[in-house]
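Changelog note: in this version the structure field was regenerated for every chain. One regenerated record is shown below for reference.
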Amino acid sequence: MKDLIQKINAKFETFKTESQSLVDKGVKAAGPRARKATLENETIHLTREIDDINQDTVGFS
């Protein structure tokens, strides 16, 4: 769980940094980088949900 939280926090920090670059400095390339960080965070979240489902169904086979 600690590893998961560290991954999510790292991606959120990337998003925060890149979105600030886009808004404050007008760095247009930062937009896609910020979006990529959110998509990667979503993937981490979905992977965790799938793992939880798999763990719950192990006893039912």
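Spot check on this record: The radius of gyration is 16 Å. The chain has a mean pLDDT of 84.
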